[in-house]
Predict the structure.
Amino acid sequence: MYIVQIASECAPVIKAGGLGDVVYGLSRELDIRGNCVELILPKYDCMRYDHIWGLHEAYLNLSVPWFGGAIHCTVYCGWVHGRVCFFIEPHSEDNFFNRGCYYGCDDDDMRFAFFSKAALEFLHQSNKRPDIIHCHDWQTGLIPVMLYEIYKYHGMAHQRVCYTIHNFKHQGIGGVKTLWATGLNRESYYFQYDKLRDNFNPFALNYMKGGIVYSNAVTTVSPHHAFEAQHTEVGCGLGHTLHLQRDKFKGVLNGIDYDFWNPEIDRYIPYNYTADDFEQKIYNKKALRERLMLRASDKPIIAYIGRLDHQKGVHLVHHAIYHSLNKEAQFVLLGSATEPRINDHFRHEKAFLNSNPDVHLELGFNEELSHLIYAGADMIVVPSNYEPCGLTQMIGLKYGTVPIVRGVGGLVNTVFDRDYDPDLPAEKRNGYVFYQTDNHALESAMNRAIDLWYQSPEEFQKLATQGMKYDYSWNYPGTEYLSIYDWIRYKW
Ligand code: ADP
């Protein structure tokens, strides 16, 4: 099958969070199963060029219609750890992708509307006719809309679209300008509730809603989140749309790339290990302590790795730090905040705790350090308010780092409480789960984990190695996506 993935991220070259990991991991899995997979990405000035091999100009004269005129683009081609990627570079005063950041600009709606248009123009003009176009998140929500409203009539009637939503919070809100810029035009047609009109803001067009309505299949990144998105506030206003489209909507649990996230072969950690020589993990713990100047002591290390924002339950992350210290545990945090208020808060916290030898807060994004933390910590805490899938708990499991998670979204599908899971036998359980958003709930789960670490080290190790045996690779999701692709190719 010929599959083109179109996204705003692909790890490790462009990674702001889990989306990048998923786009790369899924592409790799589909590739090694014998499909032809290509990726189309924006050419950002700030991406990791050191991860691209053989970058060269592949298509010099891509002219993308935009408002009344056109923007001239160059398309580059290069290999990102074996995957063929096309990077679109527009030449215009808008400077869409030369902003020193991936997201967060006032005109993000126009930047990614342009990217979507350019990606389709590239397919069209270069005569690429994939069987499947797989789009991701709001940034590419307009692709199925334009495919079925414009490009279908220009020789692209047979392409089918799978659209994956990684986070409902960001939906891409545009207006009439988007329609005029992209050539969709017909205002009164698209401002209908069964098309792109936002369900709650009658003056806005919702890109993600467009993606849902026009795609042949829609997925989100875990089965439990698919349920939540339809039936709770987690759908952020799109619940009704999803309900109407329920026949083509489902949750497919993300995988993680075990070539990259695997303590047996991880190049970033000093001591490789498996479940069978789990004792080696202790040397990574030692290395982690040395790297972060934590006191050498007989205490568990609890880690948090992730964005610092409302979604991730920052108030509980904050509490987890102090509760760990109270319970004679050490705490390591690696996180970056997108909101200045939260950033200031954690900077203050870092300064306050600076001289404490049992805690280290590392503010920023550091891929290499994250591997050492996964390998060196004993537990990883994921107290999210909502979590579409969550990768950190799955990575933690692979590294024998016991997850302590809030029971929402994909965390429900991947972590099973050691003491209370009603559906699984004890030898299948792999972590700790709490449900409420208050400090006490978090504390009770942390206490159970820390107490087990102190009181029954063998039992704790058993729990950790049980987690390592779970298969959260792309193997199963790869099969699921291929069957979705088959379904939309033959059904539509
Ligand atoms: P998100 O909601 O951000 O997509 P996920 O749990 O799905 O969260 O994925 C987070 C990914 O980003 C994981 O691979 C995690 O290791 C990585 N990550 C998050 N924050 C950082 C950071 N500050 N430094 C390094 N890696 C990070």
